[in-house]
Amino acid sequence: MNTSVNNTNTSTQSPHTIPKRLKWRPSMFCAAAVFALSLALVLNIKNPLTLKPNFILNLRRLILIARRQPQTEYISGRPPCVLWMAPFLSPGGYSSEAWSYITALHDHAGDRFKLQIDHHGDLQSIEFWLGLPEESQRLAYDLHGTQCSSKETIVVCHSEPGAWYPPLFETSPCPPDGYEDPVFVVGRTMFETDRLNPEHVARCNRMDAVWVPTEFHVSSFLRSGVDPAKVIKVVQPVDVEFFDPAKHEPLALPLGSPVLGSNSSNLGRHEFVFLSVFKWEHRKGWDVLLKAYLEEFSKADGVALYLLTNAYHSDNDFASEIKVFVEMSKLKEPSDGWAPIYLLDAHIPQSDLPRIYKAADAFVLPSRGEGWGRPIVEAMAMAMPVITTNWSGPTEYLTEENAYPLPVDRMSELKEGPFRGHLRAEPSAEQLKVLMRHVVNNPEEGRRKGRKARSDMIERFSPQIVARIVVDHIMNIVNNSSERTR
Counting CB atoms within 10 angstroms of each CB, which of 271, 277, 465, 479 has the fewest? Predict the structure, then answer.
């Protein structure tokens, strides 16, 4: 989940401090194009093609979005419009979830309503945009060009509640002009702790409905004080067509040199590869993972751990942090050397993610809390055996048959920050060692669980299944709104 809690302005503002505008906010997609040009100037790049092949073509397409001529607005009695606002131009959990929804709706909702998208809720990244598959970019061009009357629009604010109108930090507000004009306003959000803070509860109760992804969130939102009549479980889709192991070749390993340990003598197809994908933050449990892995394995075991990570309000010198952690933890190097750890900290295009999953033998993430767990379900869709913490969002889909649920030792209280007093899980490091050794020693069992995992993803969370759920909710909103206006 890509929250913005660490970069929010905690001083509250009156709704009247944001001026009422006459039209929808201009496209945030254009800002990404401006950013790209600025980047080229700052870096003194005379030929922007050096940033990436097809840069100019993609940039031109990005700018054309903002230059589209408005289409005819809908009149009363026509199909309504759904404006989906989310961090479409940013990496992270909210972004990937939003992309999965709009792709599913575009492919499977038919013509029951029009769909429009706009960027909201996080900073834009041209690097992320250029890494998207071309079909996703084309879809964005098309859906952003949809024009709707605000009075005939259902707005979905897909972000953390601090980004909702009026936002607590700089972002395009959602709904764009407040709560009066739209037919209905939905907040799509989630949380990784056991509760919401009072400010977020108030913002949820300002919405007409709040969609959350799991039963865990239904319970925690209700306990926190969100109106039970507004909280609805709407699971997240996973693109089982894109994350299909039959469609991808594995990425060749190793990628570079290990940051700890050395290449194993039997490096190659006989080596067992663990993969973990996460933002570099304490919540993701990277410290638990490193400790368990380095205590349980040595170079002689012929295993490797790959960390696909990126900075999250932190330094990006992950190699140094790993070495400092090992030193501070007083871990002792085995006589035959450390089991190797590799970092994949450069930007990996979204289109290459399935190949990374395909190159590994097992996925592991001892997280302290997840809203949903995007990399977990992607790994499961790729038929990988998964070891992850059996708490919070993943409890919606983890079973003993399709994964290796990691037990929780205890709950820990956050001691500082805006969520002080909230509780998160502390996964068992000892049981993590047991499970990692077990999956290495029982590869056929792991493959069997992986096949079951992919089957469950297809049956419960495929785009077709989830699109039907979302369409049903939207059409209920439309029908109820029509009845109220009669």
Answer: 479
CB 63 within 8 A of CB 30: yes
Please, which pLDDT band fits residue 213 given cuts at 50, 70 and 90? very high
Residues 278 and 354 grouped into a single domain: yes
C-alpha 448/C-alpha 264 separation (Å) is: 27
State how beta strands 404-406 and 341-344 pair: unpaired
CA distance 280 to 466: 30
Computed over every residue of the chain, the mean pLDDT equals 85
Residue 200 lies in a domain: yes
Q: What's the pTM value of the predicted model, to 2 decimals?
A: 0.83
Q: Are 217 and 312 members of one domain?
A: no
Query: Which strand (E) or helix (H) includes residue 230?
Result: none
* pLDDT tens, residue by residue, 312-355: 666 788 999 999 999 999 999 999 999 999 999 777 888 899 99
Q: Locate all alpha helices (DSSP H) within 176-235, ordered by sequence.
A: 198-206, 215-224
Can you give the residue range of the structural domain that contains 231? 70-237+464-484
Same domain, 284 and 339: yes
Name, in order, each residue with C-beta under 8 angstroms of 434's C-beta and a sequence gap of 6 or more: none
Considering its fold, how many domains does the chain have in total? 2
User: At residue 201, does pLDDT exceed 50?
Assistant: yes
Indicate whether 53 belongs to any domain: no
Q: Which two tokens stand for residue 460?
A: 């419960």
Residue among 154, 142, 136 at smallest CA distance from 98: 136
pLDDT digits (tens, 9 = 90+) for 53-87: 454 455 555 545 444 444 434 334 567 899 999 99
* Chain centroid to CA 209: 21
Q: Which residues, 6 or more positions from 259, have their beta carbon under 8 angstroms from its beta carbon?
A: 318, 319, 322, 323, 341, 342, 343
- SS3 (DSSP) at 302: coil
CATH number at residue 347: 3.40.50.2000
Q: What is the DSSP string of 72-126?
A: PPP-TTSPPEEEEEE-TTS-SHHHHHHHHHHHHHHHHSTTSSEEEEEE-SS---H
Tokens, residue 36: 């790209």
What's 172's domain CATH number?
3.40.50
C-alpha radius of gyration, the chain, whole number: 23
Question: Angle CA(309)–CA(98)–CA(360) in degrees, nearest 5?
Answer: 35
Q: Which pLDDT score is estimated for 254?
A: 82
- Buried b or exposed e, range 179-196, using 16+ CB within 10 angstroms: eebbbbbbbbbbbbbbbb
**Cα–Cα distance between 292 and 407 in angstroms, integer?**
14
Same domain, 262 and 394: yes
422 and 452 assigned to the same domain: yes
Are 87 and 100 within one domain? yes
